[in-house]
Design a protein that fits this description.
Layout: E1 3-6, E2 9-13, H1 24-41, E3 47-52, H2 58-71, E4 75-81, H3 84-93, E5 98-102, E6 111-117, H4 126-138, E7 152-154, H5 158-167, H6 174-180, E8 183-187, H7 193-203, E9 208-212, H8 232-241, E10 245-249, E11 256-259, H9 268-282, E12 287-290, H10 296-303, E13 308-311, H11 315-325, E14 329-332, E15 336-338, H12 348-362, H13 366-371, E16 377-384, H14 391-401, E17 407-408, E18 413-417, E19 420-426, E20 432-439, H15 442-459
Parallel strand pairs: 3-4, 3-5, 4-7, 8-9, 8-10, 12-13, 12-14
Antiparallel strand pairs: 1-2, 2-6, 5-6, 10-11, 14-15, 16-20, 17-18, 18-19, 19-20
Helix pairs in contact: 1-2, 1-4, 3-5, 5-7, 6-12, 9-10, 9-12, 14-15
Length: 460
């Protein structure tokens, strides 16, 4: 059982004791803390947009959140089943004070979360999050009298507006996509991608679409994180149907990866690389990704005469760095695409539209496009943490062991080994240490990761 409070929101498992899980009491407490923070930020704007993914617990959490906000005198605009990027954009559409997305993103079906947005439709900052957690700890809330309770309205137009913004984005070429005649297999992982992605593909002129796991019941057909070991069904179906490509999204449709026509993975790290390659062909400027992402993005940015900047892991950190350097494209190696002049949030829908445009213009197959990029191999691993584990002690011992190597401590430990690297950091979303290693050789990346995992175990 887990309850994690971080820059990625309030995330936990369903069922168990308050304070140790995302219990109904915790949902109410953290929603009330958000409401208090929101009213301190914008006392004259008491409108909040909410939406949820297809999780089993989604409707229950939704009712708790709506009732709590209403009890504080806050008006709720409910998108119901939606996507994270759609809610982010709807905050701006509605001129709302903020938004809450009810999703645990890539976590298994027994998890849920409150992702908290500011009036820009962006994740709240670390400083704002710290203040919100102080409000939650104090439990000093004031609820509205009966004559000032908040209102409730539903909205079923935001996805349509989101898709309209995507197809009208200047670098999206609907005519080229339609002419290419793509056939696509989608793995919607029993969540809201089953609504959003087919609607987008139809708007882009793609008529040959097969949806796998399209029933929105939250009973995920496989682990919902779009990693190779979870996508065998999609890979097999792409080959069986002789499709042009496959698309996989996570349950809240902010992460994205592709499958080539031969059933091989395009590589989630290369989702951003390919989209950035296309954007940077047309817009000169900087690219940003977090420091756990592939160096191939830097290669592409430099190739187009641009600059590359790394950030700490976490969407809010990527967005902050993008604003600092005025980046034209950014995101994360987990398949998250951020197109700043659309909105500052990971968005699989704009990612799909830009990727298909790039693929259509290139007149290459999906596999040929992937082969046009440098090959780096990343080994992604994790070690589960016991309650009370002293991660600082572990990292200090490892830092001392590798003190002669270049080390970046901005976000955990990133250690350089000539042209290879390894990044160790605690997760924002799970009680684990993530160990990512990258090299030009797959075996080298695996060996670096194994060595550091052994170092971690010996240091605990």
């Amino acid at each position: 059982m887990s309850l994690i409070k971080s820059i990625s929101g309030i995330r936990g498992t369903i069922g168990g004791k308050p304070g140790e899980t995302l219990s109904p009491l915790d949902v109410v407490k953290f929603t009330a803390a958000y409401g208090k923070w929101l009213m301190a930020q914008q006392p004259d704007n008491r409108k909040v947009v909410i939406g949820r993914d297809g999780r089993i617990s989604g409707a229950l959490i939704q009712r708790l959140v709506i009732s709590t906000l209403n009890a504080m005198g806050i008006d709720v605009v409910d998108l119901d089943l939606s996507t994270t990027p759609t809610v982010e954009m709807a905050v701006k559409f509605e001129k709302a004070a903020g938004g809450i997305i009810l999703t645990a993103s890539h976590n298994p079906q027994n998890w849920n979360a409150l992702k908290l947005l500011n009036s820009e439709g962006e994740f709240i900052s670390a400083a704002d999050g710290a203040q919100l957690l102080e409000f939650a700890a104090a439990e000093d809330f004031e609820f509205a009298p009966v004559e000032k309770l908040g209102g409730y309205t539903t909205d079923n137009t935001s996805l349509e507006k989101h898709i309209e913004a995507v197809i009208n984005y200047p670098l999206v070429d609907v005519a080229a996509i339609q002419k290419a005649g793509f056939s696509i297999v989608l793995d919607a992982i029993n969540s809201t991608g089953a609504i959003a992605v087919p609607a987008l593909l139809h708007a882009l002129g793609v008529t040959k679409v097969t949806v796998l796991n399209g029933e929105i019941n939250g009973k995920f057909a496989h682990n919902p994180e779009p990693l190779p070991q979870h996508l065998t069904q999609l890979c097999n179906e792409v080959v069986s149907q002789k499709a042009s490509l496959g698309i996989a999204v996570d349950p809240d449709v902010d992460r994205l990866c592709f499958v080539c026509e031969d059933g091989t993975l395009f590589g989630e790290e290369y989702t951003l690389v390919a989209v950035a390659d296309y954007v940077l062909q047309h817009r000169k400027g900087a690219a940003v990704s977090n420091m756990s992402s592939t160096r191939a993005l830097k290669d592409v940015a430099v190739n187009h005469g641009g600059e590359y900047y790394p950030s700490a892991v976490g969407e809010v950190n990527v967005v902050t760095k993008m604003k600092q350097v005025n980046a034209v494209i950014g995101g994360e190696g987990n398949g998250g695409i951020i197109v700043p002049d659309l909105h500052y949030g990971r968005d699989a829908l704009i990612g799909i539209a830009l990727f298909l445009t790039h693929l259509a213009h290139s007149q290459k197959s999906t596999r040929q496009l992937r082969n046009s990029y440098p090959d780096y191999f990343m080994s992604k691993n994790k070690i589960e943490l016991e309650n009370g584990a002293d991660v600082n002690h572990v990292f200090t011992k490892i830092q001392d062991k590798y003190k002669n190597n270049p080390i970046n401590k901005e976000d955990g430990l990133k250690i350089e080994f000539d042209n290879d690297w390894v990044h160790l950091r605690t997760s924002n979303t799970e009680p684990i240490i993530r160990i990512y290693a990258e090299s030009s050789f797959e075996s080298t990346a695996d060996n670096i990761a194994k060595r550091l995992m052994q170092d971690i175990r010996e240091s605990m």
